[in-house]
Design a protein that fits this description.
Shape: globular
Strand order of the largest sheet: 3-2-1-4-7-5-8
Distance between the termini: 63 Å
CATH architecture of the largest domain: Alpha-Beta Complex
CATH class of the largest domain: Alpha Beta
Strand content: 15-25%
Radius of gyration: 22 Å
Largest sheet: 7 strands, mixed
Structural class: alpha/beta
CATH topology of the largest domain: Spore Coat Polysaccharide Biosynthesis Protein SpsA, Chain A
Number of domains: 2
Number of helices: 13
CATH superfamily of the largest domain: Spore Coat Polysaccharide Biosynthesis Protein SpsA, Chain A
Length: 383
């Protein structure tokens, strides 16, 4: 029993060290910057492709930010599947209000895969005029030095620059829970992986050199997986290149959220990770608080120590590290933040278990599946 107890206590200690280390690493990468990059008048020409679908709480704020970039030579290509989408009127108004920025709205639903987002982007990829292309979701809030920060991250051996979403502007309690998922959990691990040279893509922002993706098979190379960012990661690594993350990430204003919306989004992402990187996903059960906390409790009981004080102290240190990270990075912090982080930790095992059972998911009203036998690329011309 003593040997088991010592092993369990070693695991709990190791998990705490990893948690503190990833928090420290992310805080160094995401510390609030003291200055922005200066306006750029001589950078590479860039096409920004923004797929739009429906209206989020801060849709006008995020789309308007596309026109406010301190960058000399860029164009914006908005893509929408349907002319009846309510976002179309907003996009047309913003284009009319900013005649100095070359911008177009392309409408049409082209089926190149079972991924509706990729289908929406396809026409924009073909229409893009420049050799550098940014794929950016409509709910990403772009700072004025957005493009400078992406290019500052690109260096020799890079195949893609991508950035995780940082939850901001939470409109209610459930939005604060989503911040706990997005920021101090997912972004923390993503920056830790990137620091170790294991960066992976997230579809919110992706900067491509067009020739790199064309050499890998073009946009349809991203249709080989149910998630275009997972496919992008595999495409880049297959060419012995790296996915790199810009410091600080880019914010996604959340507004109000419902518990159902938060759970559905996290379940969608969990099932996509299970389908595309099953080995890594299998280890996710060890990435949260409950596994080391259970080990600590077993170790304390086996060594005849007081369990409750150790558990309380362990949880307090764990949550304090996350609150410190959020405060250092300038992410949303309130008195509820530790409670939302604790609720997230209680939900993670249930999320992990449910992700293994079932293949269905939904994205903006589109029903999808991550079944293994699904043919993701639509090969028939014009289908």
């Amino acid at each position: 029993m003593d040997a088991f107890s010592y092993l369990a206590s070693a695991f709990a200690l190791f998990a705490a060290i990893v948690h503190a280390s990833t928090s420290l690493s992310a805080s160094r990468r995401c510390r609030v910057p003291h200055h922005r990059h200066p306006a750029c008048s001589r950078g590479p020409s860039v096409s920004i492709i923004r797929p739009v679908c429906g209206m989020d709480a801060y849709e006008e704020l995020t789309l308007r930010s596309t026109f406010k970039l301190a960058y000399a030579d860029y164009e914006v290509v908005f893509c929408c599947a349907s002319a009846d989408d309510p976002v179309v009127a907003l996009v047309r108004r913003l284009i009319a209000e900013h005649p100095a920025v070359p911008a177009r709205l392309l409408i049409g639903d082209e089926r190149v895969s079972l991924n509706p987002k990729l289908n929406n982007i396809a026409k924009g990829w073909r229409a893009a005029r420049h050799a550098w292309i940014v794929l950016a979701d409509s709910n990403v809030l772009m700072p004025s030095d957005y493009l400078q920060r992406l290019f500052a991250t690109w260096r020799e051996g890079t195949g893609l620059v991508s950035a995780p979403p940082i939850g901001s502007h939470p409109g209610n309690l459930w939005a604060e829970l989503e911040c706990a998922f997005l920021n101090t959990y997912q972004a923390r691990w993503q920056y830790a992986a990137d620091t170790l040279g294991l960066g992976f893509a997230q579809g919110k922002t992706m900067l491509w050199r067009r020739s790199d993706l064309d050499a890998a098979g073009g946009l349809q190379a991203l249709a080989r997986e149910p998630a275009e960012d997972a496919a992008a990661t595999k495409v880049v690594r297959a060419r012995d290149l790296r996915v790199r993350l810009p410091d600080c990430g880019f914010r996604q204003p959340l507004g109000p959220r419902s518990a159902r919306q938060v759970w559905a989004r996290q379940m969608r992402w969990a099932r996509l990770r299970r389908r595309t990187f099953p080995g890594y996903f299998a280890l996710e059960i060890l990435s949260g608080l409950l596994a080391p906390l259970a080990a600590l409790s077993l170790a304390a009981a086996g060594l005849e120590l007081e369990v409750a004080p150790l558990v309380v102290a362990y949880v307090a240190v764990w949550l304090a590290a996350e609150a410190w990270l959020a405060a250092t990075a300038g992410w949303p912090v309130s008195w509820r933040t530790p409670l939302m982080c604790l609720l997230r930790e209680l939900l993670l095992p249930a999320l992990w278990v449910q992700a293994w059972f079932g293949n269905s998911l939904s994205w903006r009203g589109n029903n999808m599946t991550v079944a293994r036998d699904t043919q993701w690329v639509v090969r028939a011309s014009g289908s």
